[in-house]
Recover the amino acids of this structure.
């Protein structure tokens, strides 16, 4: 079959896009044989960075999920004046340049910042501590969870929530037994993406928390430091992050895929209109 | 115990204003979609707070906007069968029925013949099975009031017939104040003791199904209960009858009095079909080709010009009716109702 010119353009564009996006990732692995990955990862800088990254990200992630889930449920199920504005403001960190996020966090929580005085009275210093890393990660990665979480709760048929209420379940039990399980696919996918985004956080962290080995130096920051000193080590950390991020992306796809086959098992379109 | 409902609430296109009292009987609210029927059910269940209203079961007040009483849905003793059933898709049949707690779930599963399906998810069930699960779930909390929103509309025509008969028997047996919402007059007539026709937020007529058919309050109720409506202008006719010059181009005679713009209502079973104009007491004859023939079990609906007649399958066969045949549709002057034009 001969391809027409337009078809050819489409295929060439697609090949260029995919090739360009994959090339850097492939390059990392051609430079670091998988066998040497682990020996490169055993030096102190990498081990400290791994420890800092896991600790700060797990804390930030816990905050995102514990506060973000009820917030998303509220925003998905209530209508109030200014809701659209709130939804847009939540998305702002998604489009904000990371350097701006870093400056903003310093202006809010830094020694001379908005809350700086209150924090120093309490004897708390935030900037350039591990707390700062947690805040930077939560700020940048939070919307990656909250946005899909709102969508996931919005896709739960409100009639099912009403049905739970008429069956004697209060609002809390309705949330835990109906809304949460039905939204779990979307929540899981959002959580995986948010976690991946947090692991890679760089810009806001370096401005707000600095890059102190063993304290605030995460894996991304360690790559930046190592690439002057030991390029192979930087490559090895990069390879590790590629593997972790890839695994998170895959699990997000699997979880949301599982959810969509689950809902498509319902043969009738579910009625959403309840106004008549 | 009686369920007393008064609800006033503005909806998008009109204001809902409904007052009902349901004793231990079934009341069906019928009307076109978007008439506010479901809003009434939601307000009784506590899922919608009307701007003004009162809902009480005997002495037990669930809602009284003037006294700032609004009992949340989980503390009202209602069982609701939702439109398309709203079964929890992530729970098995057993856990759906057990969701309300404290009932003898096994006995309910047995009673509604869903024991064998106890571990199935709702997505694996047929329409009729889902309907039984939904009813079992609604009864599991031992409700004092039962609300059913279009309980038959999600079913195919075949299932619908026997589910309707089953549901009718169940509702009779329960003896609870029951509100059913449906857009189908036949379903309402089969299930309910009292039918209220709800249009644009108001009840046009409330009565037994037989009352509505015998004396429809207006043209809308007549057409809703299945009557042919022939529009025209009425004036005095021979022998004390009223003559109506129909928009369809012929004149119909009715025993009802009236003048001006009117609608003549004729039920399909009042219309007889013949090959030639019969020499009988009927004064209204319409000669026209058959435009459609629809078989409904042992009956056949025959469309002749502007009129639908219902005849037995037997007489349709005897007359060898086929589409396009020119026949005569006849009905008596006393078989018509004269109604003001809408």
């Amino acid at each position: 079959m001969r391809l027409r010119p337009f078809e050819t353009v489409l295929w060439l564009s697609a090949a260029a896009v995919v090739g360009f996006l994959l090339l850097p990732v492939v390059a990392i692995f051609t430079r670091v044989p998988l066998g040497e990955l682990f020996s490169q990862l055993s030096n102190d800088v990498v081990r400290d960075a791994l420890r800092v990254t896991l600790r700060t990200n797990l804390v930030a992630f816990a905050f995102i999920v514990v506060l973000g889930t009820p917030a998303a449920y509220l925003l998905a199920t209530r209508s109030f004046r200014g809701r659209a504005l709130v939804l847009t403001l939540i998305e702002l960190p998604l489009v904000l340049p990371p350097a701006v996020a870093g400056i903003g966090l310093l202006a809010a929580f830094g020694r001379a910042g908005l809350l700086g005085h209150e924090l120093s009275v309490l004897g708390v210093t935030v900037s350039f501590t591990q707390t700062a890393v947690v805040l930077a990660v939560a700020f940048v990665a939070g919307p990656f969870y909250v946005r899909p979480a709102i969508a996931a709760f919005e896709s739960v048929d409100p009639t099912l929530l009403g049905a739970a209420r008429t069956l004697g379940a209060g609002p809390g039990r309705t949330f835990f037994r109906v809304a949460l399980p039905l939204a779990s696919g979307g929540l899981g996918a959002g959580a995986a993406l948010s976690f991946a985004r947090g692991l890679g956080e760089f810009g806001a962290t370096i401005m707000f928390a600095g890059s102190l080995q063993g304290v605030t130096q995460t894996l991304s920051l360690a790559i930046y430091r190592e690439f002057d000193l030991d390029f192979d080590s930087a490559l090895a950390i990069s390879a590790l992050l590629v593997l972790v991020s890839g695994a998170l992306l895959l699990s997000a796809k699997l979880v949301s895929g599982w959810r969509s086959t689950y809902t498509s098992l319902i043969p009738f379109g579910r009625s959403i209109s309840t106004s008549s | 115990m009686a369920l007393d409902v008064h609800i006033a609430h503005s909806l998008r296109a009109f204001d809902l204003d409904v007052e009902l009292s349901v004793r231990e009987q079934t009341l069906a609210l019928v009307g076109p979609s978007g008439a506010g029927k479901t809003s009434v059910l939601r307000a009784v269940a506590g899922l919608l707070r009307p701007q003004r209203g009162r809902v009480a079961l005997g002495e037990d007040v669930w809602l009284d906007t003037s006294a700032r009483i609004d009992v949340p849905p989980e503390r009202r003793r209602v069982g609701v069968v939702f439109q398309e059933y709203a079964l929890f898709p992530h729970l098995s049949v057993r856990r759906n029925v057990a969701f309300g707690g404290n009932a003898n779930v096994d006995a309910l599963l047995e009673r509604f013949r869903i024991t064998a399906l106890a571990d199935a998810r709702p997505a694996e069930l047929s329409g009729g099975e889902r309907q039984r699960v939904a009813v079992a779930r609604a009864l599991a909390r031992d409700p004092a009031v039962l609300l059913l929103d279009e309980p038959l509309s999600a079913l195919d025509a075949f299932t619908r017939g026997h589910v309707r008969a089953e549901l009718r028997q169940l509702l009779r047996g329960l003896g609870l104040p029951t509100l059913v919402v449906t857009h189908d007059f036949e379903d309402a007539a089969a299930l309910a003791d009292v039918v209220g026709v709800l249009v644009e937020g108001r009840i046009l007529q409330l009565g037994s199904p037989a009352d509505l058919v015998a004396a429809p309050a207006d043209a809308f109720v007549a057409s809703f209960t299945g009557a042919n409506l022939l529009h025209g202008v009425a004036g005095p006719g021979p022998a004390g009858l009223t003559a109506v010059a129909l928009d369809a181009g012929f004149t119909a005679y009715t025993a009802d009095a009236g003048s001006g713009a009117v609608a003549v209502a004729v039920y399909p079973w009042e219309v007889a079909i013949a090959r030639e104009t019969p020499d009988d007491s009927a004064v209204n004859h319409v000669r026209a080709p058959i435009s459609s023939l629809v078989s409904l079990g042992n009956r056949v609906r025959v469309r002749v010009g502007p009129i639908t007649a219902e005849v037995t399958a037997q007489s349709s066969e005897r007359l060898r009716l086929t589409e396009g045949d020119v026949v005569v549709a006849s009905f008596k002057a006393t078989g018509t109702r004269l109604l003001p034009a809408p």
